[in-house]
Amino acid sequence: MKILAFAFLFLFASNHKAVTDKYLSWNDAEKILGQKAKLVENKTEKRDTIIRYTSVYTTNINQTPSNLNYLFEIYKTDAASKKMYNSLIAQNRGLSGHQQIGDIGDQAFFHSDRKNFCLIVVRKERYLIRIKVNKITEKTDIEALKKIAKKLVTSS
After folding, report:
1. Contact assessment for residue 55 and residue 70, using Cβ atoms and an 8 Å cutoff
2. Tens place of pLDDT for every residue, the chain, 156 residues?
3. Torsion sign over Cα 61, 20, 55, 81
4. Alpha-carbon dihedral sign for residues 77, 78, 80, 81
5. Residues 114, 110, 73, CA angle at the centre, nearest 5°?
6. pTM of the full predicted structure?
7. What is the Cα–Cα distance from 109 to 92, expressed in whole angstroms?
8. Rounded CA separation 138/96 (Å)
9. Integer Cα distance of 22 and 71 in angstroms
């Protein structure tokens, strides 16, 4: 019985670590936001053939709230993640502040109005990462956002 309990505990701990590795770390969120942040949401869900890991961090500077929304999705196939990526490109194409990024993942783009929000979307194989900061403050670090997105997709 003790062996069974130990095996169950080991399996749970192993699976729990695998899931938490997909979340944006608190430290990385604070680097992007440029200040202390509070984790307000952290969840995992499965929708059809997609596994989604979501984190939301919030901060408040001079009465201006700023939220960082993180979404890591695992699709069943590369083609499915590419289809979603292309859909996101179509939604943002033609808007000012939209630019392709060539050195992150298989495909990536950055979009920002430089005043209210910034968004990075990265696709690598069957993985898709989206990180959005809404409301940009004087402390928001866009270069950290790009570096962290690159790190996350490299480790997936």
Report:
1. yes
2. 444 333 333 333 333 333 335 789 999 999 999 999 999 999 999 999 999 999 999 998 777 899 999 999 999 999 999 999 999 999 988 888 999 999 999 999 999 999 999 999 999 999 999 999 999 999 999 999 999 999 998 876
3. positive
4. positive
5. 125
6. 0.84
7. 10
8. 21
9. 9
Beta strands of 37-106 (E only): which ranges?
38-47, 50-61, 64-74, 98-100
Alpha helices in the chain (DSSP H): 2-20, 26-33, 78-92, 142-155
Q: Which two tokens stand for residue 98?
A: 């939209």
Q: How far apart are CA 109 and CA 100, in angstroms?
A: 4
Residue 111 token pair:
């979009």
